[in-house]
Design brief:
Helices cover 25% and strands 24% of the residues. It contains five helices and 15 strands. The longest helix is centred in the last third of the chain and has 19 residues.
Length: 246
């Protein structure tokens, strides 16, 4: 199933080099979509940057990795799974891997979480210089207890620098808008569908790359990736993060 999801405000601008096919899965729903990146990218030429040197072509292809302009990542302040206020600016000096997750997701988000855990282990001596961050896309389940429960259920607490951020619905929507995240739900109790790009932000707070997580589906509709692909994603995430530290 395929379609196009526009971000808040009906943005139609999308650089040709940055078009990323995403599978956006939450609950039982699975939708392939074209992500609409924020307006700050739309005027860029197709030649605006290259993937980081040293990243295997296979990893670039697997991740749908695209360069973005090295401009400042939009700032925000939200609350993590331990109830602590955290600003993006607080993470300066470290590479940031930023994702958007549903606190109740049973689809693609758990797969990305496994990829993050693999990436953390693949970082080796660079582990302390990379931070993994998720922003909640579920405004119905936006309590600290919700993001803590997800973090524990998927073993994310094993990553010392893991932050699943949440906040009031209006604050979450403001972050989604800045990062071009589309979130839809047909009604109360229905499956939540959202775009889920991964942003790579360097230690000086500048955006560098964006990746496009995806998943296959089993016969019963469950999100699935072969272990080798999850491992490949983990290695690729670690390699891109390390590249930003050089």
């Amino acid at each position: 199933m395929s379609g196009q999801v526009t971000s808040h405000g009906g943005r139609k601008h999308l650089s040709t080099w940055a078009a990323a096919a995403l599978v956006i899965v939450s609950g039982a729903a699975s939708v392939a979509a074209v992500i609409m990146l924020p307006d700050r990218y739309h005027a860029l030429p197709a030649s605006a940057g290259q993937p980081p040197a040293g990243i295997p072509v296979a990893a670039v292809s697997l991740m749908g990795l695209s360069p973005v302009p090295a401009g400042p990542a939009p700032g925000f302040t939200l609350t993590d799974q331990d109830g602590r206020a955290l600003s993006l600016s607080d993470l300066r000096g470290k590479a940031v891997v930023l994702e958007f997750m549903d606190s109740r997701c049973t689809g693609i988000c758990p797969l990305v979480s496994r990829e993050f855990i693999d990436a953390y282990h693949d970082l080796g001596s660079a582990q302390g210089r990379v931070v993994f961050v998720a922003v909640n896309v579920n405004q119905r389940y936006n309590r600290v207890a919700d993001v803590l429960a997800y973090s524990r259920a998927h073993a994310m607490t094993a990553i010392p620098d893991w932050y699943f951020l949440t906040g009031p619905a209006a604050a979450l929507r403001a972050v989604w808008r800045e990062y071009g995240i589309a979130v839809t739900a047909a009604g109360q109790g229905s499956a939540l569908v959202h775009t889920a790009p991964i942003y790579f932000i360097g230690p000086h707070g500048a955006e560098h790359y964006i990746a496009a997580p995806a998943a296959d589906r089993t016969g019963d509709g469950a999100a699935y990736l072969p272990p080798a692909q999850i491992s490949g994603w983990g290695q690729g995430i670690a390699q891109v993060a390390e590249a930003m530290l050089r």
